[in-house]
Amino acid sequence: MNRNVLLTGISLVFALASQSALAANANTTQKGSLLIFPKIDVREGVSTWVRLVNDSKLPVTVKCYYMDVEKHRVDFEFPLTKNQPMVFDAATGISPSRSVNAFPQGTNYPGYGELVCFAVNFDGTALAHHDHLSGTATVADTNTVDDRPDGDINGASEYSAWSFRYNSNGVTQPGSKDLVLSGRIGGYDSCPAYLMGQFSPSGAPAPGDKIYGKTTISISSCKQDLRQDFDRNETKLQFDVWKHDETRLTGAYHCSNSFAETALGDVATARQNFSAALLKEGAYYRIQGVASTQCKESQNAGLVGVQTSLIPGLGSVTTELAASNNPAVDGFIKWDASSPWMETPVE
Questions:
Q1: Alpha carbon distance 160, 136 (integer Å)
Q2: Cα separation of 228 and 341, whole Å?
Q3: Rounded to 5, what percent of the chain is helix, strand, coil?
């Protein structure tokens, strides 16, 4: 074989492998420049403690936005020195080292939603490439009443944030444009086209002679507008459910406006698809964000999220939903890069 042809072929293989490595989806096991926490809860009797870590030898500034299910938003930013951890209570903003703004709260505010954090430059006016951020959130609930989508949790559970790397290819700062979630050079990791979860339906037998309570999902869309003058970005969460006998159940869906939280048995349609009478001890499901006339102005969207399962008397377990590696869906996060602002909740 001609040596030049051989070298060209080898170069092409490495180039394709490199592109494949870059075109990656976000996940919960890596470090990145963007973190999404899909479950923040500050309802009465509930606390969410957020932990962020910068494991780099360099300092970084982090910009964050809370957004609840009704799109009330509060932003804040803070510096992290080299190898510095940061812990704060989302309900109060209080931190042992540096306090931040609290999650949006007030009369008729729902009190639950998401947190989005990403690396920015020193004065917070432009995005920064800093793939050294990671984080976890601990949700602790002492309530004894069943008045929320996830039921009577009465326990504590922890999950890891979804992390997106910035694919710079030597570029150290992407500038003040929107966060582009493409998986390609010049963008952040792309988003899974669908998520998968396993669960035991409410009423099914559980360990310790208990029965399972509600299973709740908290889902963040990968098409988000966090600006003060925001556009709505609806998507339809479409569910396929598989029984133990491999039968697939369809027809269940739930409309989402960038963020959604619902018990599986409380989705908008075909709730019976998640019942113990139909599923017996367990099942698994797949969620896709799709365009549909059933949800106003909805569009296809990648998703990230977590699942919280309840066993009354024993507590709750929160786990990150499994993500598809392929296909992936492009997404975006729009933000106000010019100056910080904070929505003032109406009491």
A1: 4
A2: 8
A3: 10, 45, 45
State phi, psi for 306 to the nearest 5 degrees: -135, 165
Tell me which amino acid residue 15 is. Answer: A
Q: Please tell me the pTM assigned to this model.
A: 0.88
In CATH, the number for domain 191-334 is 2.60.290.11
Neighbouring residues of 55: CB distance < 8 A, sequence distance ≥ 6: 31, 83, 132, 134
- Distance, CA of 194 to chain centre: 13
pLDDT tens digits, one per residue of 277-297:
999 889 999 999 999 999 988
The region, left, alpha or beta by phi > 0 then psi within -120 to 50, assigned to residue 258 is left
| Paired tokens of 252 | 């269940």
- Strands 34-41 and 73-80 turn out to be unpaired
- Type of residue numbered 304: V
Structure tokens at 341: 């602002």
Task: Measure Cα distances from 277 to 155, 209, 266, 273 in Å.
Answer: 27, 19, 15, 9
**Secondary structure class of 238 (helix, strand, coil):** strand
Indicate the DSSP class of residue 161: P
Q: Where are the domains positioned within the chain?
A: 34-178, 191-334
Q: What is the pLDDT of residues 109-165, one digit of tens each?
A: 999 999 999 999 888 888 989 999 999 999 988 765 555 544 444 678 899 999 999
pLDDT tens-digit profile of 296-314?
Answer: 889 999 999 999 998 887 7
Closest residue by Cα to residue 49 from 161, 217, 133: 161
Phi, psi of 15 (to 5 degrees): -65, -45
* 3-state SS class at 211: strand
